[in-house]
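task queued by scheduler; priority normal; single chain, no ligands, no partner chains; default sampling; output format set to structure tokens
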Amino acid sequence: MSTEPRGRVVLLNGPSSAGKSSIGRAMLARLADPWFFVPVDGISGMRSTRHTRVLGPAEIDEMLRRTRLGYHRTVAALASAGNDVIMDYPLSEPWRLEDLLDVLTGYDVTLAHVRCSAAELERRERVRGDRPLGLAASQTQVFAHDDHDIVVDTTHHGAGHCASEIVRRLDGLSRPKAFDRLRARTARPPRAG
């Protein structure tokens, strides 16, 4: 059995186009090595793109669910080997948080909410052109759990400013942290195996 300490996890949670990826990349330059930035889009980008048939909506939903479940476990695997990990991931469906509370039991998780005004999110979606218009607005569940350790707002602050704020606050957070409070609130039984 490994005696390596588990790595820390910072979960950047917020709607699409809020700036999570930019903040995650900016954090890497501000944290002592080695930290890994593992965005969910990076995992999704590893998926094959050759289509032999058109998937139906239910098949697409199931494929995306499996991808996200794998993402959760990839982060846990990296952290279990002592690596510190930054996640860029919207908690836009309740099951995502439920699964992460289970998979990351025993890990030091910092939940950072990345907020941005609705008008600015819509503007960014139009400029980006790589997301469906209205995606951010549709992610109404992203902050539904109503708990966090750190909040940054990218409406008027750039990624560098927000990254510096998160890094500055990482070591001074009170305990229990949001993930532990959320786990206790949902009275989740310990994970088997």
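post-processing summary
- The mean pLDDT is 90.
- The beta strands are 8-13, 35-39, 84-88, 108-115, 150-153.
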